[in-house]
Amino acid sequence: MAATHEWSESNGAGEVVTDAIANINFGSVDDNNINTITYPITIGQNSFSKYIRGKFTGVFTEISNMKFWKSAGAYIVGESLKAGANVAYATPSQVGTVDTDIPTTEGAALSVNSAEGNPTIEYGVSGVSGYTGYMRLQLRTTGSTPAGAVNQKTLTFQYDEV
Q: Which domains does the chain have, with CATH numbers?
């Protein structure tokens, strides 16, 4: 058997976790699987921050060397994507996070730990959840950002499985 990976997103003041999300769209609401037409980001504003995690199930020995970066997709004028790894969950908001621009190469990728703070996720160990630490994301715009949809981005999460 092999590990199965899915994305999870946490939302709300009480942290509601949704596993197997369909997208990581950014918008003007704290929710998962957002329809950006219904919840657009106002020019010059930030999206609500996103708290995502990888979740591993199935049978595996160890997940290690976890990395996260933006591997494709051009920005439009005034747009930026901020990211932090292994952050504590907080109620998502549109207030600017302290995170820096998401790395755009594997060599500069964010290093991701397990939810428990370890550099690996080991199968069958008592107290191991199978989740990674939180990756916090936020899309930001400026007054120069044109109205309408932004370009699609590819976010890459890479790991080694034993």
A: 3-161 (2.60.40)
